[in-house]
């Protein structure tokens, strides 16, 4: 296991603004085709022989200016039927779960959202994403899906802002980001993501329980 002394972060509160990327639309699908049915999904998978614990998360900003995060760290798994209308199904610690990790956004509450940033972080087990063979698939009803490989990271990158969903005039668009982050002293990967995209969330340190047979990284 790679030694890991990185600062860890869990969330709490307020934000604005963000960079953009390439729009992700299925072939033939009109931009902003989603108007409020079903679920927007982001699905993370990686092979168990990679020996790594990856986390899928989401920073969400709402039309009223409130913000939150849904992620395994801190066990902030969210809810699909009540606020924040975003849910993470599980924390796959090894890649052995056949369903990986999946975030779902309830599009029945589409107009309550302003933007959602989907990100992946390395909790432990690898110095960066190279050779992990991890991939994130983003899909929405009537707009198809797109799978994004996470192998092209620079050396030392432990977090990636993968895709941004935005809601404008009641319509949803999703853009590819692929912005990489390397560890920074005293600043967690999550806080780096937050600062880069100006969500304005307050963070507190957190760690997970150790995986069986492993020591917990120091937080």
UniProtKB/TrEMBL annotation:
Annotated region described as Disordered, given as residue ranges: 1-37
Protein name (database record): Tellurium resistance protein
Annotated Gene3D superfamilies: sav2460 like domains
